[in-house]
Amino acid sequence: MNYSHVPSPDRSHRSPSPFAPIEDGFELWLRYRPIADPARLAEYRGAVTAIMVENRGSSPTLAAAHEELAVGLSGLLGEDVPPVDVRAPVHRAGAVIAGTPESSTVVRRLGLEKKFAALGPGGFLIAAETIDDRPVIIIASTGEAGVLYGSFALLRRLQTERSLDGLQIAEKPRIGLRMLDHWEETRCYAGGNVWNWNELPGTIDPKYKVYARACASIGLNGAVLNNVNAEKKYLTPAYLLKEKAVADLFRPYGIRVFLSANFSAPITVGGLPTADPTDPAVRGWWKAKVDEIFSAIPDFGGFVVKANSEGEPGPKDFRRSHAEGANLLARALAPHGGIVLWRAFVYDPEADSDRLKRAYNEFTPLDGEFDENVTVQVKNGPLDFQPREPFNPLFGKMPRTSLAMELQITQEYTGQDVQLVYLAPMWKEALDADTGGGFSVAGVVDGSAHGYKRTVVAGVANTGSARNWTGQDFAQANWYAFGRLAWDHTLSAEALAEEWTRMTWGNDERVVAAITAMMSGSREACVDYMDPLGLGHLMARDHHYGPEPGDTVPGHEDWSPTYFHRADEKGLGYDRSSRGSNLVGQYFPKVGNVFDDIDACPENLLCWFHHVPWDRKMKSGRTFWEELCFLYHRGVAYVTAMRAQWDSLKGVIDAGRFAAVAAKLRRHEADAAAYRNVCLSYFQAFSRRPIPVTSP
Ligand code: GCW
User: Which domains does the chain have, with CATH numbers?
Assistant: First the structure.
């Protein structure tokens, strides 16, 4: 049927309806509200009139792409954008035609394959083309997942109100596996577990589909369903049914399911006397377990393992190496195409007295010993997701082992569900860092430096049971930016903030300007009021929210703020120079020498590598102590300014989310000031200098 003669109702001037959709954050950035700018709306209505996704009946992924285009385009255009059938006698002007060469006669007929074949099954081409003299928009890929990603990319273009003129977008992901790791309730600040395991598999909460759509919209293609501190139940038959239900739901969206496995599962689940990797019964148990999983979930991704870390069992319990442990699981998974993500977050005190040197000492000697289907998963920095860390020296030092980067989206150390801290600048800093080995950290992670066959980036998810998914509405931006950077780490933090803002809060230029300004410096502010000048790990024990710089944890010096900051009457910071613990020696000399030299070391990492005298002259002309005070104050002042910016949006954005964020910002400001005050008065007891009255 041809609807092109039906005039569209003009909805551009309607007043807000009392029945307008409730803005509670549930829809994330997939809101698809009608385009407000009349000129843009007219342009889009002219360019987009129908959707054509052939053969969607036989492909759940193409059906998902079609459904998203139908819902999204109809919502954005404020009028029904109908499907058209390939059997229709004429191709319709303004059809959005999506498919692969196999699924779509039009894609085949246009012969565009040379333009997208090299982009691979996850990449896509979006192009304005002409067919039978009619302008159409093509979304094409060699893979169905690519068609889905392309559909979301076109929607994003409209949601952000960019012109469709000369439309030609060719993209492919720079990293192969882009995953979220769910730690369940651990370090989740947005209510309880995002998965309702008790209800599964009988009841499938419709929100799981929203999750899958959101992930696919930013290119994520893997999800680890359970915590790295893995409970045994996740490998039991009853849970496999639940996990299968989730995997079935995610499959159309191109998301593969992974599980965290506990190394002692052969004992705890299997009833064997040992979990020793060399024991034939242990090997047999893993093989049978993996076969069982794959019979339920044929595209199961594999296991994430936290071994010999923070009390979790591992191969070292049997005097075997991390490589022997990882290969045990890898060999069970290999016949099915599954992989092992073996975490390098280890800090066995026997490896070194400096906690930060331990993972490197344990893992670099194993380079080359891991099986082909093992990836070693490395946190961005050598400590533990602090607001600022230098990059982890493992990046670049294991050329024969695929290394994944693990980032923390959930804000364990960066304000949890309260504070507005946009983390993309932090991740960019890590990715863009020059290793000194002739490539950046991103070059290691995306495989270009060492030619890794498999490339992986993982983010510890911030999704919970909260209606808005992440507690603080702005934390959605971190989920969003993580996915987008996993797809393409060359995107800028600023561009992603703007994209997310337009999709989440609207295209009103006042809103965009205020919100992106707030977000842009929020991470640096967090560093300032928590851990400026290379400090870190000053947080309180257990909950990790507020400060407790004076804490010394009995029996655990490497969990103690005092171990990390080493304040004394001379100064502040941990000497990791070549005269101290020599962490600098783990970096390539080009970078290590810079960190080693207190005069060359970036000031924002000074206390990470040096014990800095209180009276050291800083670049600003202030003494180190004065600088410390200045930055702590500057951080809090930034939060005060964010509050004012937010208040200026009152009445411009929806009342519900406005009030929720305003309340969070009030607490944010108070807590930032408290962090500053506690830390400065604590350090003052060592510096014995007055806290200058600075107003940054
Ligand atoms: O950041 C720390 C957290 C732990 C976490 C650990 C890890 C899941 O405080 O809760 O354990 O890292 O990464 O394994």
Answer: 38-171 (3.30.379.10), 177-489 (3.20.20.80), 526-574+611-687 (3.90.1330.10)
